[in-house]
Please model this.
Amino acid sequence: MSFVTVENIFQSYGKRPILERVNTTIEEGEFISIVGASGCGKSTFLRLLLAQERPTRGEIRIDGNPPAVEPGLDRGVVFQRYSVFPHMTVRENVVAGESFRRPVGRFFGAEKRAAKARADEVLARIGLDHVADQYPATLSGGMQQRLAIGQALAAKPRVLLLDEPFGALDPGTRLQMHDFLTELRAETGMTVFMVTHDLEEGFKLGDRVLVFDKPRWDPTDPNAFGATFTYDFDARDGGIPFQNILEETNVLKSA
Amino acid sequence: MRLINQRPGVVLASFLAILPFAAVLIAYAIGSDIRLEANPNDKLLPAPATVFETAARLLTEPDRRSGDILFWLDTMASLQRLLLGVVISAAVATVFGVLIGLLPAVRNTLSGFVAVISMIPPLALLPILFIVFGLGELSKVVLIVVGILPFLIRDLSGRVLEIPREMIVKAETLGASTLVIATRVALPQLMPRLIQAIRLSLGPAWLFLIAAEAIAADQGLGYRIFLVRRYLAMDVILTYVIWITALAFVMDWALKTLSRKVFPWAEGGL
Model:
């Protein structure tokens, strides 16, 4: 049984179709890169996954649960910007990942101390322990995105959604973030969707690369048709498919 | 070099900052001198020294009839009305600002209403306030509230709407309820903006206070100014005007400093 199922999604704003007939299934633990030209509906698809919007037709299920009607704990998200809370210190931002689900959004007493200790562990893991008491505005772009990812993971979502998370970073920082994300993924085995317009990044990080494009094109009315997945690449093993034997073969294995 | 790139040095910059104040003072002194030379009993432009003497007398000498120093009583009465009006407005505006900014249903209900209400000239309502709330303290406080509340609500709800959608969605993905989003995301981010809005509305608040006191009061800075107007006591009026200006300036400065201290994360926004 696949973990995330996307079934026949249509999305249109007014009369303008954005997405049409989007279908796919995703296994638990897969890293999906979503690429495509600007304005082709990548971000719309991510908002649908996030349940920030609801599709005109079709449904998205995670682990067989009924389609979500609003964003919730099972889907974590990191946007290109505005993903951390500017009025909280770095540590408070991580604690918020756990405490916001509480009735008043705070921990008290022993629970608070425990959460703080856990947050410090997370900060040490993501290399931000030296700035724990600073406000995000004093951090560099890469540090802010690391914090955003750490905060999202502190909430332990089932699926992590990244909307061009490294789009505003310089190339060097971006490479560091790739390593950071790869390590983090190896540790958590999380299912990740990442929207990016950088093909290289998509293939480098993803297990699968899904390409959004318009299969039909009306030259006199470019907005007449919506986009869908036109390619579904296997990006493992450096993008060279069929490197692993998936079938149970009768070949004698050593030990 | 272009004018836009010519920056004055420290000394010149301070001189330029003082210049307009000095110019006004000198112009007044000259005008007063000319009039007093023609008529030593002229009351319109009292000499700066006379104003200074009057100020010293007002600040220290008790009233012959009551034995109180009226200047301080007036100040306390006015400040009390002003602060009450501003604090009540700020509290109500914060609640409504968050509700209108966060909840679409409340926004649909109230934003049009507030927009229309804010167009009513508050001073036109003053007679109604006097009739309904009497001539006491209440009607003056209510005038200030009526005068600045619609502006504050519109400003603050707009500020809540300006919070990036991404940030609200992020809070939702962390499991935050509407209450938590309001109290932990919207409200803290609104606070520095509230102080900024209060700073902007202090001017109108003073205007409404003085207007209400001018019409019906037995105490207060505005009352005193309009009382002594009958005797053409320009020296008293000027003293009070300078005092009101100083009070307003100190309040503005204090709010700005407070905001910088308490909300260090909101740098550049103030």
